[in-house]
Automatic annotation (TrEMBL):
Pfam families: Molybdop_Fe4S4 (PF04879), Molybdopterin (PF00384), Molydop_binding (PF01568). GO terms for molecular function: 4 iron, 4 sulfur cluster binding; metal ion binding; molybdopterin cofactor binding; NADH dehydrogenase activity. It comes from Streptomyces hundungensis. This is Assimilatory nitrate reductase catalytic subunit. The gene is nasC_2. It comes from the Bacteria.
Length: 766
């Protein structure tokens, strides 16, 4: 006879669980943990573009101490490893809590008052601009900032600094997709919500390691698979998602345009084109059809290093499905042909009539939390709020009227983030403020980046941890985390969601908004920057975007709280938002049509030769985010993935953990080998979340797409060779008198690659 089940008495706990329950682990009545004095604050994750809903757990003292998944319809109670650990950064021992200042890089940092740090910064701005002109000072923002702050970055740069040199780190992320979207559709966002994936009969994922970079998005792929959808993955690596695909095309890095042109060639030859859709809704079809006529499967097979029959398989599977969708990410965007790569995917979707319908469409998967919203409201060098062009006289007039400045006062377009570094080297830019970015890890060709920043006469950074870039600055302003302020972000669907403030910031810490307003007041434009907080900025942003393709006017904080998110455009407060674009085949171009673009493949910018016969490609891993400034300080994430590695094919003769030197024309570094059949023999992969001497981006090339100005991170020529000793991972920088939180740094010394199965054959550590 089985024993009776234990009584459901919260005072009775198995050994070892009482501490958890005493900390607030008992399920709360009506989702309120009142019995422990705990508050659950609804918000969203600070990391990737999925923007999972979560609750931050706040104790009696008003401090964030934990997280619970939230049953938001984006993530349905799911969180990835980063989301589960994100709360730990809020009250982390490494937090900056006072401004840091030094008048020369030869001096050590010292803590300074806010008044001294602000006054010194303004004095340096005035000194540099008086001697060399307004454009001698630059501003770089970030796509992990709330949209209110990205709006302020653009306004602050052009109204307070009066400089044309304003850009942001989304330049390293989404701009190729943005450029393609604008050319083809006249609007820059994904065409379909995630929920449409569940209705698709065929999913094509190109250049996106969804399982590690956007883990919670995987539920939508699995949902489609459960109802019978086929899955096509285009990626040089056999990622976790690729292992489950019906067709995995492991093409050579840098050959995407040739592949998709060949797929379209087969669609045309086998009479799989949706001729009625193309005739009614497109321009440029004749030019596109002619451009792919000679790009046969055999031609693409030779360029891409794949079997020709895979081209035919993909064409038949995608074009033969009743409803097909294509999603892509950095894998096809981080190229000198990034915009054109994206256009070839758009051409395929258009030719097969897979746009603007439930289960049929096209989307770009945003990397940063506000990668979508961060490029909409003016911190990009060529754009003004609402996605307006800074070169358009009518757009300039509209924004000048809202901002209360003369049209002659608004600077012209500036240059891109990487181009600004080159201008620093040439002393065309002599001063810089950076907000929410870490170029010393995230930009390519580290030697060039370090040289450019070292040439600056003055450099200030905003951050809540001391990043590698901030550690090189003259002034560091300690600012809030996402949990200490409120604001909105737009996720990969272009769904605007609301982040709520969960706790007060530590003493001595201020919001990015407050710091920009204080600097603006000292620069003589106090009347243009008199915001009390995010809500006032958002109200101005709504007005500034009204009537544009990026219309936020109908979105309010109250509506976001009530609905859980609204997809723009949303022109009025009774408008439901626009989750799906292009219904009826209509785009945002004045003629309403899809403007198809002919593309001719060209090879990557870093040529192969006998010295550099292989391809190096880079990307993210599930435990870390972007430059790692946040995640390399969180113990569980460091323990899961303490260091970078190099993925190599077994044919090269290495064993797991062997020191492997990767050599490019920019330099060399030594990583432990992760030996796996999940990568092409002619390709190696390194994750990029760490600084020198273990920085993948010390090796990558700073070649740019001529239209989007995105760097070609995803392919450069390299060679590999045996080495004696693996390069050591440095601890994150720490402010004066501190060291990096030791509890999170122990595993950095592990010389072996991760044990988690990143691909076939990677669990072995001997």
């Amino acid at each position: 006879m089985s024993s009776a089940p234990p009584p459901l008495d919260p005072s009775i706990a198995p050994p070892g669980t009482r501490t958890f329950r005493d900390a607030g682990g008992i399920p709360a009545d009506q989702w309120h943990a009142d019995q422990n004095g705990e508050t659950l604050v609804p918000t969203h994750c600070c990391f990737c573009g999925v923007q999972c809903g979560m609750y931050l757990r706040v104790d009696r003292a008003g401090k964030v101490f934990g997280v619970e998944p939230r049953n938001h319809d984006i993530n349905r109670m799911r969180l990835c490893p980063k989301g589960i650990n994100a709360y730990q950064q809020v009250n982390h021992p490494d937090r900056l809590t006072a401004p840091l200042l030094r008048r020369s890089r030869d001096e050590p940092f010292r803590e300074a008052s806010w008044e001294e740090a602000l006054d010194f910064t303004v004095a340096e701005i005035r000194r540099i601009q008086a001697a060399h002109g307004n454009d001698a000072f630059g501003l770089l923002g970030g796509a992990s900032l709330f949209s209110e702050k990205t709006y302020l970055v653009g306004k602050f740069g052009r109204v307070a600094l009066k400089t044309r040199h304003v850009d942001y780190n989304g330049r390293l992320c989404m701009v190729s997709a943005a450029g393609a979207n604008k050319l083809a559709f006249g609007i820059d966002r994904a065409g379909n919500p995630f929920s449409d994936i569940l209705l698709s009969d065929c999913l094509l994922i190109a250049g996106s390691n969804v399982g590690e970079c956007f883990p919670v998005m995987t539920q939508y792929l699995w949902g489609a698979r459960d109802r019978g959808a086929s899955l096509i993955v285009i990626d040089p690596r056999e990622t976790a998602i690729a292992r489950t695909a019906d067709i995995h095309v492991a093409l050579k890095p840098g050959t995407d345009a040739a592949f998709f042109n060949a797929v379209l060639n087969v669609v045309i030859q086998e009479n799989l084109v949706d001729k009625e859709f193309v005739a009614a809704h497109t321009t440029g079809w004749d030019e596109v059809r002619a451009s792919v006529a000679d790009c046969t499967p055999e031609v693409a097979a030779d360029i891409c290093g794949i079997p020709a029959h895979q081209v035919v398989q993909v064409a038949r599977a995608f074009a033969g499905a009743d409803r097909a969708m294509a999603w892509h990410a950095r894998g096809i965007e981080h190229h000198s042909q990034g915009v054109e790569n994206c256009l070839t995917v758009i051409n395929l979707c258009t030719a097969t009539g897979n746009l603007g319908k439930p289960g049929a469409g096209y989307g770009t998967i945003t990397g940063q939390g506000n990668g979508q919203g961060g490029r909409e409201h003016g911190q990009k060098s060529d754009l003004l709020p609402g996605g307006r062009s800074i070169a358009n006289p009518e757009h300039r007039r509209q924004i000048c009227e809202i901002w209360g400045i003369e049209e002659t006062e608004l600077p012209p377009a500036g240059t891109s983030m990487m181009e600004m570094v080159w201008q620093m080297q040439r002393q065309e830019i002599r001063g810089l403020i950076g907000i929410c970015n870490n170029p010393f890890v995230s930009l390519p060709n580290y030697a060039t980046v370090k040289s450019g920043y070292d040439t600056l006469e003055f450099h200030a950074q905003f951050d809540f941890f001391l990043s590698e870039t901030a550690a090189n600055a003259h002034v560091v302003f300690p600012v809030t985390t996402w949990a200490e302020d409120e604001g909105v972000m737009a996720n990969a669907e272009a769904r605007v969601v609301k982040h709520n403030k969960a706790q007060e910031p530590p003493a001595g810490v201020r919001t990015d908004t407050w710091v920009m307003c204080q600097l603006a007041q000292r620069l003589g434009v106090a009347d243009k920057f008199s915001y009390a907080g995010s809500r006032e900025v958002f109200d101005e942003l709504r007005i500034a975007s009204a009537g544009t393709v990026n219309d936020y006017y109908g979105i309010t904080y109250e509506r976001l709280e009530e609905t859980g998110g609204i997809a723009w455009p949303c022109p009025s407060t009774d408008h439901p938002g626009t989750p799906r674009l292009f219904e009826g085949g209509r785009t945002a171009h004045p003629d309403g049509k899809i403007h198809m673009q002919a593309v001719e493949w060209h090879p990557p910018m870093d040529p192969y030769d006998e010295e550099h016969p292989m391809s190096l490609t880079t990307g993210r891993t599930v435990a870390h985010f972007l430059s790692g400034n946040q995640t390399r300080r969180l113990g569980a994430l460091v323990e899961q993935t303490p260091r970078p590695w190099v993925e190599v094919h077994p044919s090269h003769g290495f064993r797991n953990g062997d020191p492997v030197r990767v050599v490019t024309r920019r330099g060399s570094e030594v990583f432990p080998a992760l030996v796996t059949e999940a990568i092409r023999p002619d390709t190696v992969f390194i994750p990029y979340h760490w600084p020198v001497p273990t920085a993948a981006n010390a090796l990558t090339i700073d070649a740019l797409d001529p239209r989007s100005k995105i760097p070609e991170y995803k392919v450069c020529a390299c060679r590999i060779e045996a080495a004696e000793r693996i390069d050591e991972v440095p601890a994150p920088p720490a402010p004066p008198g501190h060291q990096a939180y030791p509890a999170t740094q122990v595993s950095r010394t592990d010389p072996l690659p991760p044990t988690s199965p990143q691909g076939r054959g990677t669990a072995e550590r001997s």
